[in-house]
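Sequence design from tokenized structure. All designs in this work follow the same two-part layout: the structure record, then the generated sequence. An example of the structure record is given first.
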């Protein structure tokens, strides 16, 4: 009888694990965070009016529900919420999700914290052109587990070195489950919405990176 009662009591917990999200315009408070943190400034390729502040729930590496935040272009905000709703349903682990402004818009620091982020007004790595992050149309997901690998095979972050080997076998460790591969459901979900994955690039590999082609 006690076992049956415990089983029944465990069911509501699963049912109550509900995805929650909210899309809003950039408020004065969020604008100030962006200005103070350096992620947006006058001269960036998109105005604040074209960006949206998004909050959403996700499971961290301890399988605990957290509220994350990111900033995206208004044209992709709904698609991203749909994608992360499905990631939440499959309990895909995400280390943390904070605005890159909290890291002084420093991409290296954000990656070192294994932070999943989106908008950041900066140039593309190794380029003089604006990154798709500058348009709010790119996301870096679990960057330590999904590193940027140069043409020569260099990885800048020491904690990422062990993830050079992408096949994690049957490991159920959150860090291994976070690894994104070509056959990952994560890639499929983004591609269904018209996004590209950096793991498909020739030469360099940017396993953390997803972007929506910027059709201006």
């Amino acid at each position: 009888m006690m076992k049956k009662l415990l089983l029944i009591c465990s069911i509501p917990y699963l049912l109550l694990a509900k995805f929650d999200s909210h899309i809003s315009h950039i408020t004065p408070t969020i604008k100030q965070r962006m200005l103070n943190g350096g992620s947006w400034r006058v001269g960036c390729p998109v105005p604040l009016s074209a960006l949206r502040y998004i909050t959403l729930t996700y499971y961290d590496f301890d399988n605990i529900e957290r509220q994350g935040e990111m900033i995206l272009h208004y044209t992709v905000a709904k698609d991203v919420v749909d994608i992360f709703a499905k990631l939440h349903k499959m309990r895909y682990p995400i280390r943390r999700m904070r605005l890159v402004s909290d890291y002084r818009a420093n991409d290296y620091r954000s990656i070192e914290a294994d932070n999943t982020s989106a908008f950041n007004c900066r140039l593309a790595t190794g380029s003089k052109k604006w990154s798709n992050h500058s348009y709010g149309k790119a996301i870096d997901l679990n960057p330590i587990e999904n590193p940027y690998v140069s043409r020569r095979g260099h990885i800048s972050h020491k904690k990422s070195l062990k993830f050079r080997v992408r096949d994690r076998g049957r490991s159920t460790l959150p860090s291994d489950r976070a690894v994104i591969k070509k056959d990952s459901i994560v890639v499929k979900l983004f591609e269904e919405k018209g996004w590209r994955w950096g793991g498909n690039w020739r030469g360099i590999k940017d396993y953390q990176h997803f972007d929506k082609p910027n059709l201006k």
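The chain has one domain: 18-211. We note this feature because it recurs in several other targets discussed in the main text.
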